[in-house]
Structures are given as C-alpha cells and as structure tokens.
Backbone:
C-alpha cells in the first residue's frame, strides 16, 4: 500500500508540473517574416514558454569587441543569457555592456554597473545573419533604437554594428537642453569592431 501511495504521489507531482514548451530562435525569426503576421500572428508558437538558441548562433557574438568611429572609442561586452527575462516566455539572448569614450579618454557612456534585469542593451532575435538588439542610452534625448550586429563571414573576429535611432518619442527640453547639438552615442553608419 505504501508503494502504491508513493508511486501515485510521484505521478501526481509530475503531472501537476507545467511542462516547458521549447521553441527555437529560428522559428521566431521565420514568424517575423510571415507576410500576414500583423493580422494573424503566429498561432503555431502561442504555447512556447522558452525560445532556445538550439544551434548556438549567439555564441559567435559572445566576448569583448573594440572599435573606433567618428572620434569615439567603443568597448562592447556581449554575454549570452539562457532563459532570460521575467516574462511568461523566456529567451536565450545577448545582453551587452557598453563603454564609450571620446579621443581624450573622457567617458561618454558606461552601463557596466547595470543589473542584468535592468540592462539598457539587450537582444531580440536574428534577421538572417544579423542579430537585432535594442539600446536605450539617454532616453530624455531620444537616445534609443535598434542595433544590428553581424560577424563577417571572411573574418568572424570582426563584427559590424549599425544603429537605427528611434525618431519618435516625447522630448522634454528641460531634461535634454542640448538636443539641437546632441549626437547619438552609437554610430548611425556601419562600423567595424574587432574581437579581443
């Protein structure tokens, strides 16, 4: 009788646990390209609770990357996080730490002390070979947008970066008095970084 009770208890515990339903980055990338996605969504992916990097595509970006562009020196550290986020669906994604200095060594931006849960530079998903990330710098000066990174096929130790700054938002001149002369922190033209 004790064995039956034990087995029944174990089976009940197993069945009562919510099963994790795994999808892949590739499935969600394909979903984003569907022509009718805005109307229909992706009903085949509704029950996914974990979007996994099954092919380790994010690994190519992990590490420290350095480069210079337009009088600014960049150091970007990218880290792969598994099952990341405080949401119903967890994702494997990259998070980034950015240090930007001018040519005189003055720090223009540094998010190295941000916690993982409040990070201002995080990944979304792939678009072909390009990985799409989102960046929020000085939000009061409309400094936010998508960052597209891609390693070069001929040299995987080189990565290109392009920043598409958001054009819409609410600007408070009191919080960004120098908006007319404010230059974006990240380059809006394609730049190259080298893996260290």
Residues:
């Amino acid at each position: 009788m004790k064995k039956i009770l034990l087995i029944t208890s174990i089976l009940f515990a197993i069945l009562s646990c919510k099963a994790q339903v795994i999808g892949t980055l590739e499935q969600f990338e394909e979903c984003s390209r569907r022509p009718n996605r805005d109307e229909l969504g992706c009903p085949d992916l509704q029950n996914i609770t974990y979007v996994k990097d099954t092919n380790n595509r994010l690994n190519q970006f992990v590490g420290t990357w350095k480069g210079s562009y337009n009088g600014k020196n960049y150091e970007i550290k990218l880290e792969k996080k598994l099952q990341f986020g405080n949401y119903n669906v967890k994702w494997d994604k990259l998070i980034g730490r950015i240090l930007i200095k001018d040519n005189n060594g003055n720090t223009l931006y540094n998010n190295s002390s941000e916690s993982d849960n409040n990070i201002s530079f995080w990944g979304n998903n792939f678009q072909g070979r390009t990985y799409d990330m989102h960046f929020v710098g000085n939000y009061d000066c409309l400094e936010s947008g998508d960052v597209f990174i891609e390693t070069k096929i001929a040299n995987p130790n080189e990565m290109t970066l392009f920043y598409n700054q958001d054009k819409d938002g609410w600007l408070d001149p009191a919080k960004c008095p120098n908006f007319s002369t404010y230059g974006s922190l990240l380059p809006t033209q394609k730049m190259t970084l080298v893996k260290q």
Remarks:
- Helices lie at 2-16, 25-32, 37-40.
- The domain at 15-195 is CATH 2.40.128 (Lipocalin).
- The first strand starts at residue 22 and ends at 24.
- The chain has one domain: 15-195.
